[in-house]
Amino acid sequence: MTEVYMRQKSHAFTLIELLVVIAIIAVLAAILFPVFAQARERARATTCMSNSRQMGNALQMYLQDYDETFHKGAGLRSNGEYGFGPHSNIRGWANWPYFYGPYIKNAQIFDCPSSPDTASQVTQNEWGNDGNYGYNYSGLTRDQGTPPRIQAELDAVAETFVFFDSGDPAVRAGTNDWPGLLEELDLNLNCDSNQWTGGYTRECALRHFKRCNVVFADGHARSVDWVRLLTRKADNVAPWMINWSDCNPLCPPPSVGPGRCFDPNRLP
Question: Is 205 in contact with 164 (CB distance < 8 Å)?
């Protein structure tokens, strides 16, 4: 008997089939990667808002302990506690988290996960808080020789900015004008400084989908858009409580856009 061997036909991908599969994977990746990136950033923004709420709680406890007076001080020292590194010159405008550390007891709260500054910087010796959160120094603590404000002075406690996402540790506003405010928030493209002419980074205040997380003087926190953040009003009124040199009685953001001090279309 003759044995018949059936040769099985082998199947393999052709080059065209392989290229089609690769193309499909590439298309799916192009669709899904931005979605994943947005999901990660939304998670970071949520963590930042949680940080802001805890800072708001610490603010209220601090004000209760200090007769509703906003913090002030310079040349203070700390051996390092609550996760902060040692510091030999704590200043109310640059190192303000040290004033609230005893009420939070976790220095990581003062690190925004969306900022390019890593959490490890919080524990460094002589930490300066750059690139994380800012404080309304010109409006609430004010310059040396001028007493800090008390909460009762505020015309609208629930509308006054205290802490916020920022590239610099405090808004001192320079000459208390529009370019000065932008400069402190790392939003100044080409007025007074050319630091951000190449475009904004995630150190800027509007780092969360073009929005900023803000803690208000009554302790609550919420996200605001650039119009709300940058609108200034008369001297010594909410939201900034600053004596403006170029703005009275009402001063919404000046003309913005390409070639201007501030261009919201270039936000990260």
Answer: yes
